[in-house]
């Protein structure tokens, strides 16, 4: 058994670590509260946006827009697929980064020419070390405090690459928070957009029958309206994903830090018991020695 | 005067939700005014000043960025990235943003960066213009 001094030192060091993890827990929980508020603020916009796009597409079924061009003539192996991967800037967030990376690895097994656009330092470092992966090294953005400006920069870059044919498909991989306890890694296709994704699934009979075909005028033209709406819509999705991922990251970190603090407390309790036992043993031994010495003196 | 319902939603909040008599939207080729019972239409909204008159006669101004407006069955919804009241605009910040955009526009850059700087420039100018109009010191 270690001596009392060693145990005391160990306890002091655990106490320090516990203070740090506890502070990180508090920071993450306050950051998550902010992120949750942001998420709630943006929700009406995204739902409205989705509904509007669905409505517009219903009214103008024969719309020819480059954003809906699936480029089916390109075979699966030749397709250039871009993935935006949203990871955290730091570790210490439980399985958060690991889950995103694992989901990305699964997608990389599919046919096609993959290119990664990684957000967050943790993911960037992982994929930089991995062999045989094309990663855009110019694509450097932090995931801290998602802003509309940053998502605008990201989405305009991606839309541009899609437009000039550098990419045929764009997906985003992020973590969605289902509730306070569970988060799920999700993959969403940004471009090209599919008309069917916007059609209400429960009424396929109505599609194409003309029941919903009210007249609708596009000002100044269909093309310019779509050119305005689609990049905006993509920007909206990217922003939503960033906020969602930021929220999940802090939730994961909060849980991880809570666990760390709890187990530090457990360890301290155990060490405290051991320390008391060692101290008691030391005292008993000292007493035995004194009594033994006194007895030896008496016998003289 | 007959009214129609108007909903202005930006990414971070619902700016306005209620009745409106008259709505003016900035579009690519100028402003477009909308009254009640307008025909169904989708309009591309540009960066600029949006105005509308509430049933009590009060005019409300908002600085909006890109987006679109949709009018269906006497209901108008305007979806834009940002919508701000002129009094909420931080003049100093807008001035700094304008300078930054000018600086970036002067430097050699790719087409895409050019468009981005141009858009930030337009936003900054509109914000400055709207906040100056309010104080009436052009």
TrEMBL record, chain A:
Pfam families: ATP-synt (PF00231)
GO annotations of cellular component type: plasma membrane; proton-transporting ATP synthase complex
Principal place of residence: membrane
Any one of the GO BP annotations: proton motive force-driven plasma membrane ATP synthesis
Entries under InterPro entries matching the protein: ATP_synth_F1_ATPase_gsu, ATP_synth_F1_gsu, ATP_synth_F1_gsu_CS
UniProt KW Lipid biosynthesis keyword: no
SUPFAM superfamilies recorded: ATP synthase (F1-ATPase), gamma subunit
Subcellular location, record wording: Cell membrane; Membrane
Highest taxon above the source species: Bacteria
Single GO MF annotation: ATP binding
Keyword Hydrolase among record annotations: yes
Keywords carried by this UniProt record: ATP synthesis, Cell membrane, CF(1), Hydrogen ion transport, Hydrolase, Ion transport, Membrane, Transport
Membrane topology note: Peripheral membrane protein
Family, per entry: Belongs to the ATPase gamma chain family.
Cited HAMAP family: ATP_synth_gamma_bact (MF_00815)
Subunit relationships: F-type ATPases have 2 components, CF(1) - the catalytic core - and CF(0) - the membrane proton channel. CF(1) has five subunits: alpha(3), beta(3), gamma(1), delta(1), epsilon(1). CF(0) has three main subunits: a, b and c.
Function: Produces ATP from ADP in the presence of a proton gradient across the membrane. The gamma chain is believed to be important in regulating ATPase activity and the flow of protons through the CF(0) complex.
Protein name according to UniProt: ATP synthase gamma chain
Organism field: Dorea longicatena
Lineage per the UniProt record: Bacteria, Bacillati, Bacillota, Clostridia, Lachnospirales
Encoding gene (name): atpG
From TrEMBL, chain B:
Gene3D superfamilies: ATP synthase delta/epsilon subunit, C-terminal domain, F0F1 ATP synthase delta/epsilon subunit, N-terminal
Keywords per UniProt: ATP synthesis, Cell membrane, CF(1), Hydrogen ion transport, Hydrolase, Ion transport, Membrane, Transport
UniProt keyword annotation of Membrane present: yes
Membrane topology of this protein: Peripheral membrane protein
Record's keyword annotation contains Transport: yes
Start and end residues of each ATP synthase F1 complex delta/epsilon subunit N-terminal domain: 4-83
Localization per record: Cell membrane
Main subcellular location: membrane
Record-annotated ATP synthase epsilon subunit C-terminal domain positions: 87-131
Recorded GO CC terms: plasma membrane; proton-transporting ATP synthase complex
GO MF: ATP binding; hydrolase activity; proton-transporting ATP synthase activity, rotational mechanism
Protein origin, superkingdom: Bacteria
NCBIfam families: ATP_synt_epsi
Function, in words: Produces ATP from ADP in the presence of a proton gradient across the membrane.
Family as reported in the entry's similarity comment: Belongs to the ATPase epsilon chain family.
SUBUNIT field: F-type ATPases have 2 components, CF(1) - the catalytic core - and CF(0) - the membrane proton channel. CF(1) has five subunits: alpha(3), beta(3), gamma(1), delta(1), epsilon(1). CF(0) has three main subunits: a, b and c.
Name of protein: ATP synthase epsilon chain
Gene name for this UniProt entry: atpC
